[in-house]
Amino acid sequence: xxxxDQDHTLALAGIYQAACLVQQIARRGVADSExxxxxxxxxxxxxxxxxxDVFGGVAGVAYGLRQLARQLGGEVRRDNEITGYLLNxxxxxxxxxxxxxxxxxxxxxxxxxxxxLVHFSELHPNIxxxxxxxxxxxxxxxxxxxxxxxxxxxxxxxDNINRIRSLLLAGxxxxxxxxxxxxxxxxxxxxxxxxxxxAKMLLKAVD
Length: 207
Description:
The longest helix has 24 residues, at 5-28. The protein starts with a helix and ends with a helix. By secondary structure, the chain is an all-alpha fold. The protein is 70% helix and 0% strand. It has one domain (5-204): HflD-like (YcfC-like, Orthogonal Bundle).
């Protein structure tokens, strides 16, 4: 199956969305709740028919599309911290995909957590704590470890820690989707104008 620039842009925007939400929480202790709901929701979309279905439509990843356009469009100075998060998420996803046992445990953990959605919303502390545990057990032991910078008063808050780890897991899920449809690190540089054009076009439909 061939995938379009739109598919690649949506998946890449999913990584940007997770990375930027992590930065928001680390710096200010708050994050866009709608964007975060979509990012966490995407973790449970195991057998979606299309890229857009993973995010529940373009609107679900609009925040990420705006960040992609800002970071790659050259209209503002690129945020090196966001770029670092994104590249580390992509790198960790590639390492994870080569470890079948770790991948299987991660998927089993997500499926067990999905069963709990009968009783809890996707942003409920119990769900985020379960996802954070999956990240700690299956991802945080891998190198390079993602070091999140921010305000210590927010970073030491247990609820914020769980939100950040859950979002990093969602970022890896988006990176996996991006890779599965043919996305590669070098394309972020060489295809950035195409991604920016697609992002702006998609945003017109939701703004």
